[in-house]
Amino acid sequence: MLLLDIYDKLYIYAGDMDNVRLDQPVREMQAWMKTTQNPHYEGFFVYGDRKGHCFTGPVDMSVRLQEMAQHILRFKPDWATSPWWNY
Questions:
Q1: Strand (E) or helix (H) holding 52
Q2: Which residue in 1, 7, 14, 19 has the fewest CB atoms around it within 10 Å?
Q3: What DSSP element (H or E) covers 27?
Q4: Does residue 43 sit in helix, strand or coil?
Q5: 40 vs 61: CA distance, rounded Å
Q6: How many angstroms separate the CA atoms of 64 and 48, rounded?
Q7: Helix (H) or strand (E) holding 47
Q8: Helix (H, G, I), strand (E, B) or coil at 35
């Protein structure tokens, strides 16, 4: 049996006026995640008020990329190297 470790890994940002109407499936996914068990993880969802398809959250893309890099460094395996961080 394959168990996926998703805890603390799903951060979803969606505009509530998505051009291709992806906000509704995101809301359905959020509702489903609230029902998960063993492990239970509700995820992290942010909806942008009157934002479209490319909404990346309340910060600009450069800040989002820094947050992603820090998350990768925090959770990388002990054996993994990160020479890409030294720029």
A1: none
A2: 1
A3: helix 23-33
A4: coil
A5: 30
A6: 15
A7: strand 44-48
A8: coil
For residue 71, give Cα distances in angstroms to 22, 36, 62, 67. Answer: 26, 23, 14, 6
Question: Rounded to a whole number, what is the distance in angstroms from the first to the last CA of the chain?
Answer: 40
Element (H or E) spanning 1, and its range? none
Residue with tokens 């820094």: 66
Q: Can you give the pLDDT at residue 5?
A: 54
Sorted by where each begins, the domain ranges of the chain are 1-63
pLDDT (tens digit, 0 to 9) for every residue of the chain, 87 residues total?
Answer: 334 455 567 888 898 888 888 889 999 999 998 998 887 888 888 998 998 888 888 888 888 888 888 878 888 888 888 776 655
* φ, ψ of residue 19 in degrees (nearest 5): -60, -30
What the block records as the tokens of 57 is: 């959250």
